[in-house]
Amino acid sequence: MDINSYAPKRIFLGLILAFVVLFSTLMYYLWHLGTNQETAIYRFLFTGIIVSGFIVMGFISVVLGSMVVTILRAQTMSVPLLQNLMRITIGYFFPIVMQIGKVLRIQKNHIMQSFIQVNNQMVLAKQIKVPAEDMLMLLPHCVQDANCKYKITRDIDNCKLCGKCPVNDLITLSSKHGINMRVATGGTLARQIVKSLRPRVILAVACERDLVSGIIDSMPLPVYGILNVRPNGPCFNTHVIIEEIEKAIEQFKAYPPTWSELNEAEQAANK
């Protein structure tokens, strides 16, 4: 699935804004209720709740405001703590956003695609550059031909490179760039793989549900999500867009310096 066909980021951001409005309305109602209480203890209790609520609201507003500016201007964030806070915040907001979207009758897949878009923008904003060996391409088992008897879930080298499914091209791509590639049957195996390899960046290919789950579970580890293509329905002989994956690899891969760059660095050091 081409990234240009994902649901737009404004869906997720709009639903977060809806939550902010609802929360602010609730705070105003509590404030109004508290000021009409005659008993001092109730006024004190309501005041405490309202102050706490506005502190939380202020924190959320700063984080979300920074996130919106980052996305709209497609710019980077120079504060690492704020970068991580933005990604963790959208992860915590996701269940709330899904419930608001359900009330507004917005399709689940559209919300999840929008979430993936927002997450990817946050990851790109970090301007991460890592050696190839510190990257992990994590794939679902359904990219392999369902009738193939050489299963690659535990060992990629079992693939015979016949070309009947995308695995051949994916192995070629991972070898070309020197990055790790693994196939997972579910979240448990995916977590084991991540724990074993300890990558600094993950390029994850999956359906909307699995991508969202993996992104949230892995926070604050950067996960760049890429949706698979499902011409035969979910979880069966799925495809991938190789060009989209390679573009993502090039976004994060730290290439060795050229001779001219090395000479310039040496000259600068000798001055």
Broad CATH class of the domain at 109-252: Alpha Beta
Q: For the largest sheet, list the strands in their spatial order.
A: 2-1-3-4
How are helices and strands ordered from N to C?
HHHHEHEHEHEHH
**Over the alpha carbons, how many angstroms does the gyration radius reach?**
23 Å
Instruction: Tell me what portion of residues adopts beta-strand conformation.
Output: 5-15%
Average residue pLDDT: 84
- Total DSSP helices: 9
CATH topology of the domain at 109-252: Rossmann fold
Structural class: alpha/beta
General form: globular
Helix percentage = 55-70%
Total E-strand runs: 4
Q: Which architecture of the domain at 109-252 does the CATH hierarchy give at level 2?
A: 3-Layer(aba) Sandwich
Distance between the termini: 51 Å
Protein name: DUF116 domain-containing protein
Pfam families: DUF116
Keywords: Membrane, Transmembrane, Transmembrane helix
Transmembrane segments: 12-31, 43-72, 84-104
List the helices and strands and how they pair.
Blueprint lengths: L8 H27 L4 H34 L6 H24 L4 H18 L9 E6 L26 H11 L2 E5 L2 H11 L3 E6 L1 H11 L4 E5 L14 H11 L6 H12 L1
Helix pairs in contact: 1-2, 1-3, 1-4, 2-3, 3-4, 4-7
Verbal overview:
The protein is of the alpha/beta class and 271 residues long. The protein has a domain of 144 residues: Rossmann fold. It has 9 helices and 4 strands. Strand 1, helix 5 and strand 2 form a beta-alpha-beta unit. It is globular, with a radius of gyration of 23 Å. The N and C termini lie far apart (51 Å). Keywords: Membrane, Transmembrane, Transmembrane helix. It comes from Desulfuribacillus alkaliarsenatis. It holds the Pfam family DUF116.
